[in-house]
Write a structure and sequence with these properties.
It is a single chain. By secondary structure, this protein is of the alpha/beta class. The chain has one domain: Vaccinia Virus protein VP39 (Rossmann fold), CATH 3.40.50. Helices cover about 40% and strands about 10% of the residues. The protein contains five helices and four strands. It has a four-stranded parallel beta sheet with strand order 3-2-1-4, with helices on one face. Helix 4 links the parallel strand 2 and strand 3. The radius of gyration is 15 Å and the shape is globular. The termini are far apart.
């Protein structure tokens, strides 16, 4: 299959790195695959199950899914009884689609490296940064999360 991201030279540090991944995931959003970073849905489901198991349970807890992609983890959190779920992703079209298709979660467009993304989100019982930290500028992302 042809690379879905034309004219992207590569990733680098700082804002260039973020611009690369924003362009990359905008192109992936147009593909029909329900997963973004995995070879298939089984691999993704195994990873999601491991993350959920590590929490000790989400029932009644508020959750942030930072780098939510197409929202699979957010959907699982809601289905498992989380009190509230917020998904944040850098891909604008993906967030817009999630807002329309699944309005029971709160969806926000933003970078996990940008303090402005968190300005009015509040606090959460659980924060998931699942398959996103390798794409983020880590200088302040972990402190912000």
């Amino acid at each position: 299959m042809k690379d879905p991201v034309p004219n992207v030279v590569g990733e680098g540090p700082g804002a260039g790195r973020e611009a690369f991944w924003k362009t990359y995931y905008a192109a992936l959003h147009a593909r029909p695959d329900p997963w973004l970073d995995y070879s298939n849905h089984r691999v993704q489901l195994q990873s999601l199950a491991a993350a959920l198991d590590a929490t000790g349970g989400v029932l009644g807890r508020t959750c942030l899914d930072a780098g939510c992609g197409r929202g699979q983890l957010s959907f699982a959190l809601e289905a498992l009884g989380a009190a509230a779920v917020t998904g944040v992703d850098i891909a604008t079209d993906t967030v817009k689609a999630l807002q329309q298709k699944h309005p029971t979660c709160q969806w926000r467009q933003g970078s996990i490296s940008d303090p402005g993304t968190y300005a009015d989100l509040g606090r959460f019982d659980l924060v998931f940064a699942f398959e996103v930290l390798q794409y983020a500028v880590l200088d302040n992302s972990l402190a912000l999360l």
